[in-house]
Amino acid sequence: MDEKRQTGLLENEGEGSKSADKSYRDGATSFAKKGDALKTGLDAEREVEMYKDDFDSAEKAGRSHSAGDLPKDIADSYGTKK
User: Fold this and answer.
1) Which of 7, 17, 78, 79 is most buried per CB count within 10 Å?
2) pLDDT tens for each residue of 33-46
3) What is the pTM of this model?
């Protein structure tokens, strides 16, 4: 399995990838065990409060359009419209 992972030749597991789930859970557990998750969360909250205007404008920009609203969303790889 490790050889396939390194070469990018993993088989498609379909919806509900068990290997992706395991990888996520292992990483989250490792983070929770080695770090102070509460402190990290509070630090992030403080940063959001310090840069509230930046975060708000980024959120507004992200919500201002959806997939298909940008010209590149409706153009194929050759630049022609679909």
Assistant:
1) 17
2) 887 888 888 999 99
3) 0.41
